[in-house]
Amino acid sequence: MMKLLRRTLIAAAAATPWLALAAANVDAPAPAFTAATADGKTVNLADFKGKTVVLEWTNADCPFVRKHYGSGNMQSQQKAAAAQGVVWLQVISSAPGQQGFVDGATAQKLNADRGAAPSATLLDPKGDLGRLYGAQTTPHLFVIKGDGTLAYKGGIDSIASSNQGDIAKAEPYVTEALAAVAAGRKVEKASTRPYGCSVKYAS
Amino acid sequence: MLPILRLALPALLAAPLLGLAAPPEASTEHVQLRLVSSQASVAPGQRFTVALEQTIKPHWHTYWLNPGDSGQATTIDWSGAQAGAIQWPTPSIQAIGPIVNYGYEGRAALLVELTVPPDAKPGGRFQPGAEVKWLVCKDVCIPEQASLGLDLPVVAQAADAKAGPDAAQLDEWRRAIPAPAPFAVQIKPAAQGVQLSGTATGISKAYFFADTWGAVAHSAPQALKADGAGWALEIPAGDEPVAAGKPLSGVLVLTGPAGEQAWAVATTMPAGAGKGPGAADLSAPAAAPTAEPAAAPGDLGLLPALALALVGGLILNLMPCVFPVLSIKALALVREGNHKAEGLAYTAGVLGSFAALAAVLIALRAGGQQVGWGFQFHSPVFVLVVAYLLFLVGLSLSGLFEIGGGFTGVGSSLAAKQGLAGSFFTGVLAAVVATPCTAPFMGAALAFALSQPAAVMLAVFLALGLGLALPFLVLAFWPAAQRWLPRPGAWMDRFKQALAFPMYAAVVWLLWVLAQQAGPDGVALALGGLVLIAFGLWWRHASGASAVGTVAAVACVVLALGGSAWIKPVEADVRAGSSTEAYSAERLADLRAQKKPVFVNLTAAWCISCLVNERVALSRPEVKEAFTKAGVAYLKGDWTREDPKITEVLKAHGRSGVPLYLYYAPGATEAQVLPQILTPGLVIEAVSTSPAPRSST
After folding, report:
1. N or C: chain B end with fewer CB closer than 10 Å?
2. Which of A17, A21, A193 sits opposite B214 (nearest CB)?
3. In this complex, is the C-beta atom of B98 within 8 Å of any C-beta atom belonging to chain A?
4. How crowded is residue B425: how many other Cβ atoms within 10 Å of its Cβ?
5. CA of A156, closest CA in chain B: separation in Å?
């Protein structure tokens, strides 16, 4: 009886939203997922075994996302990553009716217009993937190593602002994390403060 | 009307070029901004408060210092004035789905202290500018910015500067800035993060806003446990949990009998958290439910501390600096009559002294000083005065002079009174000479006391005093115990004379302490004072205790005491041997980063147990060999004179005094705290077999 009670309590504790929002931990296996892409396919994290994967939470209308796309910073990071064989996945977790929510075709058009070059764009209107990783902001970035462990989570760089002029002055955390993973080194700053707009989950 | 506008417009546009101030108000789509000055005019060098008032569109919010899971704090870049950091009013929680933000809705006033440049010209204008940037969000976020400015006339004298019409409004806003908590808040690791606790009762709601990102999970519920003994708030950790020895600060909002109140709180996670007793752990009984619901509220956590203090006081009796006092007083008891009254007088003397010490500590603590047990020995003047006092006691024991009942009259004209007054001042003397003897039990109880409200602190000190006075009290009230005392006889005089030598030895020790604090000059002054005192008392003795002799003796003592004012402290000199390095937090962090094992010894020249430990354990060849073999770096911190950095470390480990021995295994996240009494085996075992301590999270 006591055991059952304890289990119930633990289950209840696990169901609290904040725990659901803190499941992705650095050096732990990244949570497995399957998601629909903007071009109508389905991807599974396991498909990319052996490759480094970047998850980028995005919302095209968020000023902080605009900072990095407007300046070309995000596109150049995506291209540099692709050149190294890194899989770059955009994730859109905005709920229908919320800022940043788009259908697959619009998402593709947005990327074409901006010259963005992600490997794929994942559509997550229910916010399941966002909650699974604990994505809080747009942008919010995660780097997963080839062996499936999480190597980095946090902001795209060190200066939390919406000002494009700050990009050159900031420490590029994601670039540094990818360089460390490629070199087989430990990521020095593996967990940083993500900054940006809140992910527009269905509330 | 229109032509005027036409004329005015170019002037407005040209305003920045002409050195005119930016307007004090601005509005954007979502926020109206206003700079509000407490002053209508200012004087050069004057410091005054300015508020940035944000009036935010309904349902939108701006952000606090730590914006929470997303968002961005408002920033103000000042020009033309020196500005302090933003003082933030208490934020509220904005929860959007699983995301939690800290910020403001409706209206917020951020306060800043501005300083007028000292070279501002009277008759001119003071025109500071403020570039304000903020993020304002509802379901979407908009970054906005505005340029604001003030334009105030400069007057020559601060006395002539006038308060502005909004000064009262500013005062009201200032009251909305959380004040530093007037009560102690304890921190310790909890199952999923940290636990904050305190002794306030009747708390029905509590929330802690951490002021940095990552320390706590913003979106996690904070679990409050409150009972008759206080409150405890469990806060799950965020992505950058508070490590041992690291600070956690923020705003604590408590809802109690007085309504909702917000306090600025700054705590430091104990470096030895979860290991052995410490201040943080001492608070645990207060928060735990107990089987004595009938006991007075607030006393539950106090009882263990009082018991510890009582035992600590008892142990003080066995210390070499107290034992002679007790022995002699016991001898006097055998000789004289009214035991019970004398016992009570002695107890009153001890308790009075401890109460006075507690009062001084309370006053000093109120003054914001970092004080710890034995702090009075940081002062070379105090050390010298105690040395003189013990020297006088020694001379008296040697038979050079006897005032009244002998020992009890020594050292001060107050103590010269016979009988009850003599007993009282013997008690005072015992309390004074007991202070440097930090017995093992006392550290934790005192650390607890220093972190408590004044009344609790006083109670702990009185318990300590009672412990010290107890053996004497028992002897006085239970004559059966006196039967164990030896019979009076001629041997007593010889015994008394023999007891002079521990006194002289204590004087030698104090002078050695003084040498560390005041250098050779200080020692010369002290020795000169001793000669002067001896001369004065010899004169009195030689003149057959005549009135002239007595005056001469008193004059000499007063002269010696007056001379102590010339003592000058010298700069700290940590006596570092070849294998010993001076302690600094930076050096420790450096060594730990290199994954080297580190042994930290925090000591003071006046601390007997420290010296004994160094003699019997730390300087032993086998210990040194073990250190060399394990490659242990040995850091020594000197607290002979109060060093706030070391006080901080002591506090972090729940201690208010030295010694403190810490061992950091290579790569360990926290220190292993070694006992206050060391043996060579204990130290060798710690450095050779110590497993890396468990992480505190």
Report:
1. N
2. A193
3. yes
4. 25
5. 13
Both B637 and B684 in one domain: the answer is yes
Chain A CB within 8 Å of residue B29 CB: no
Under a CB-based contact definition with an 8 Å cutoff, are residues B669 and B244 in contact? yes
Examine the domain organization and report whether B184 and B311 are in the same domain: no
> Is residue B290 a part of any domain in this protein?
no
Query: Residue range B458-476: average pLDDT?
Result: 83
Asked if A60 is an interface residue toward chain B (Cβ–Cβ < 8 A), one would say no
Residue with tokens 């105090």: B382
Task: Give mean pLDDT, residues B412-436.
Answer: 64
Helix (H) / strand (E) containing A188: none
Same domain, B242 and B164: no
Q: Kindly report the CATH number assigned to the domain that includes residue B222.
A: 2.60.40
Whether the CB-CB separation of A156 and A123 falls below 8 Å is answered with: no
Using CA atoms, how far apart are residues B633 and B400, in angstroms rounded to an integer?
Answer: 51
CB-CB: which of A62, A153, A198 is closest to B101? Answer: A198
Closest-CA residue in chain B for A23? B239
Q: Give me the DSSP letters along B591-613.
A: HHHTT--EEEEEE-TT-HHHHHH
Q: How far is CA B73 from CA A68, A156, A174, B151, B593, in A?
A: 19, 18, 23, 26, 33
Strands B247-256 and B259-268: antiparallel
Q: Evaluate whether residue B572 is within a structural domain.
A: no
Give yes or no for a contact between B374 and B438, defined as CB atoms under 8 angstroms apart: yes
Largest Cα–Cα separation, chain A: 62
Q: Which residue of A has its CA nearest to B239?
A: A191
Q: Cβ separation of A63 and B141 shorter than 8 Å?
A: yes
Options 3.40.30.10, 3.50.50.60, 3.10.50.40, 2.40.50.140; CATH of A23-198: 3.40.30.10
Tokens of B323: 């034992």
Which residues 6+ apart lie within 8 Å of A34 measured at CB? A42, A43, A44, A45
CA trace torsion B441, B445, B446, B452 (10° rounding): 180
pLDDT at residue A134 above 60?
yes
Tens digit of each residue's pLDDT (9 = 90 or more) over B564-616: 777 776 644 444 344 678 888 888 888 888 888 899 998 877 666 677 677 77
Q: Which residue of B has its CA nearest to A25?
A: B239
3-state SS, one letter per residue, for B208-266: EEECCCCCECCCCCCEEEEECCEEEEEEEECCCCCCCCCEEEEEEEEEECCEEEEEEEE
| CB atoms A131 and B98 under 8 Å | yes
Residues B555 and B615 in one domain: no
How far apart are the C-alpha atoms of B11 and B99, rounded to whole Å?
47
pLDDT above 80: residue A89:
yes
Return the amino acid letter for B324. P
- Please check whether residue B97 touches A, CB under 8 A: yes
The dihedral of CA B43, B45, B51, B52: what is its sign? Answer: positive
Instruction: Confirm whether B47 is domain-assigned.
Output: yes
DSSP string, B663-679: EE-TT-SSPEEEPSS--
In this structure, the answer to whether residues B46 and B123 fall within a common structural domain is yes
Residue of chain A with shortest Cα separation from B70: A198
In degrees and rounded to multiples of 5, residue B34 shows phi and psi of -150, 130
Least Cα distance to B373 among B606, B569, B183 occurs for B606
Helix ranges (H only) for B270-418 are 279-282, 284-287, 302-316, 323-335, 339-366, 380-398
Give residue B253's domain range. Answer: 180-269
Q: Edge to edge, what strands does the sheet with A140-144 contain? A: A42-44, A34-37, A120-123, A87-92, A53-57, A140-144, A150-154
Residue B17 reports pLDDT greater than 70:
no
Identify whether the C-beta of residue B504 lies closer than 8 Å to the C-beta of residue B394.
yes
* C-beta separation of B152 from A171 below 8 A: no
Q: Is the peptide bond before A139 cis (omega within 30 degrees of 0)?
A: yes
ipTM of model: 0.75
Q: Tell me the C-alpha to C-alpha distance, in Å, between residue B177 and each of A187, B72, B205.
A: 40, 20, 20
